[in-house]
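for the writeup, i need someone to sanity check this before i put it in the appendix. the sequnce is what the collaborator sent (i think, or maybe the updated version? ugh). structure was predicted straight from it, no edits. if anything looks off just tell me and ill rerun, i have time this weekend
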Amino acid sequence: MAEIIGVRFNSAGKAYYFDPDGQNLSMGTMVVVETSHGVEMGKVSIPNREVSEKDLKAPLKKIIRVATDDDIKQLNENQVKEKKRLKRRVNLLLSIN
């Protein structure tokens, strides 16, 4: 048996499984993990549970850490910047037409 947690990177997204590395993590806990896209922060959507290792498609990556206040602050700043960039792009496209 393997211990897993499920992590989502957006509210409507798929949950991806990670090894909690011995930590007991509850739903809603923000964690930092390594993904195929690099280091990302997500929210625990499935708390610790045991699953059969034969049900896993590949070895699980361990979480890097529980997100710190600084991690969450940086995520929020990045989201604000992204919204501003999107608004500028929309305005640029509208001005072209």
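The longest strand covers residues 38-51. The radius of gyration is 17 Å.
thx in advance!!
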